[in-house]
Design brief:
alpha/beta, eight-stranded mixed beta sheet
Length: 223
């Protein structure tokens, strides 16, 4: 059976518009790097807080996409409602979960045989965690999840869950994250990055290493 293709050529980025719950959603699609074996995986990456300048072009989001593409994974970034070319107003994570669900439905339509990973940075980590119970990704990557700032009640992360937290985060309290994780029964792998601020200033290469080391053993094996 012919597998549907994303509207993008190798080595290029495709910018598309999907019809979201309250209007268009701006989406960027990138295929894996050309010189690596292709994995049957698509990762959707969620950006940080919309009201504080978070977009799909955020450097942590972009580094996450680049790292995963270097591992042979196709990536999809998108702007939540009210950001960039996406219509609507900020909805405190509720409507943003609906935005993510629309993007996920499109990905699964385009690549029905591929495995789904979700990733998110800060507010994006919150949104992807809250939506995980319904969307059932194979794996989840949470970078600086804002524990203590948003309601994480009712989450159900998958068995493959990587959490990366900077030890000098000035926006998300690292101790709040660690204490929150200790209250959960969900298995997870926690990476604490020393001397690292919220936006990973001068630590993006270290973030790439943490991501690569954290997920590479998931490749090639379905959960």
């Amino acid at each position: 059976m012919h597998k549907p293709s994303f509207p993008v050529a190798p080595g290029e980025t495709a910018c598309i518009s999907l019809e979201g719950p309250v209007g268009p959603l701006e989406v960027l699609v990138d295929l894996p790097k050309a010189d690596v074996p292709v994995q049957p995986i698509v990762a959707i990456i969620c950006h940080p807080l919309s009201t504080e300048g978070g977009t799909l072009h955020n450097k942590v989001v972009t580094m996450t996409a680049t790292t995963l593409r270097e591992l042979g994974i196709a990536t999809v970034r998108f702007n939540f409602r009210s950001v960039g070319g996406s219509a609507g107003e900020f909805d405190h994570g509720v409507g943003e979960q609906e935005d993510l669900k629309v993007v996920t439905a499109w990905v699964r339509q385009q690549r029905p045989d591929d495995r789904l990973w979700l990733a998110g940075f800060s507010f994006g980590a919150f949104v992807s965690l809250k939506a995980a119970a319904e969307l059932q990704p194979e794996a989840l990557i949470s970078i600086a999840p804002p524990a203590g700032r948003w309601d994480f009640g009712g989450i159900a992360p998958p068995a493959r869950w990587l959490v990366i937290q900077g030890e000098q985060d000035e926006i998300v309290d690292p101790q709040a994250v660690y204490q929150w994780l200790d209250t959960l029964d969900a298995p997870h792998e926690l990476v604490r990055m020393p001397d690292t601020s919220h936006f990973f200033h001068r630590k993006l290469i270290d973030l790439r290493g943490a991501l690569t080391h954290g997920v590479k053993h998931w490749l090639g094996t379905a959960a």
